[in-house]
Structures are given as structure tokens and as C-alpha cells.
Design a protein that fits this description.
One of its GO terms (cellular component) is late endosome membrane. By secondary structure, the protein is mainly α. The protein has four helices and no strands. Helix 1 runs parallel beside helix 4.
């Protein structure tokens, strides 16, 4: 029906926009992960001091590594969502319907623009 086609095109348009938003979110997380890395790699900047002590803590992860790892996990989750959305949009476009194809193109364009 006509209403079903309009709804399908709208859903594909929104999925394409969300795909582009996820792509930009991954880029932002990558930038933050790189900023979390220290500029110099001296031993004092890599390890946090023990509580009540003044020497470096042995066997503990550095602060920057924990921050970087959190950003890396976020990037991984964004990547999984991006792949799933990409395949969904690809399968919709492979229905060989011109309106759905135009909805995917319009959504990708709008998502990139925003």
C-alpha cells in the first residue's frame, strides 16, 4: 500500500541518518581516546601512586590505560551497531525499490550534513 511504502522509506531514511551519526560518534571517541594517552611516557606519568605511599604502584594499570580502554570499548560497541545498521540498509536497498534507494541516499546525505 501507499502508506506502507511511505513508512518504509521513512524508516530507511532514519536508519541511514542514524548510521551516519554512529560514524561521527566513532570519530569523536577516537579523538578522545587519543587525547587520553599521555604526551610523554615517563614512569611517573604511567603509574598512579599507592595509597599512603610515595612510590609507583606495582602490578596496577596506569590511569591513561583505563581511560583509553573505556574509549576503546565504546568504539567497539559503536562499530557493532554501525555494522548492523549498514547491513540493514544494504538489505533494504537490495530490494531494488527505487523509493527505498532514494530514502537511503537522502538519509545518508541528511545524516552527514547534520
Amino acid at each position: 500500500s501507499r502508506a506502507g511504502m511511505v513508512l518504509s522509506v521513512l524508516v530507511i531514511l532514519l536508519l541511514s541518518m542514524f548510521y551516519e551519526a554512529i560514524k561521527m560518534g566513532k570519530a569523536v571517541l577516537l579523538r578522545r581516546a587519543l587525547l587520553a594517552l599521555p604526551r610523554s611516557l615517563s614512569q611517573e606519568s604511567l603509574v598512579e601512586p599507592e595509597e599512603g605511599g610515595t612510590g609507583p604502584a606495582q602490578g596496577r594499570f596506569p590511569i591513561f590505560f583505563r581511560r583509553w580502554f573505556r574509549y576503546h570499548v565504546g568504539q567497539t560497541l559503536f562499530h557493532v551497531v554501525q555494522v548492523v545498521l549498514g547491513y540493514m540498509v544494504m538489505l533494504a536497498v537490495m530490494s531494488y525499490n527505487a523509493w527505498i534507494f532514494l530514502g537511503a541516499i537522502a538519509g545518508s546525505t541528511l545524516g552527514y550534513f547534520m
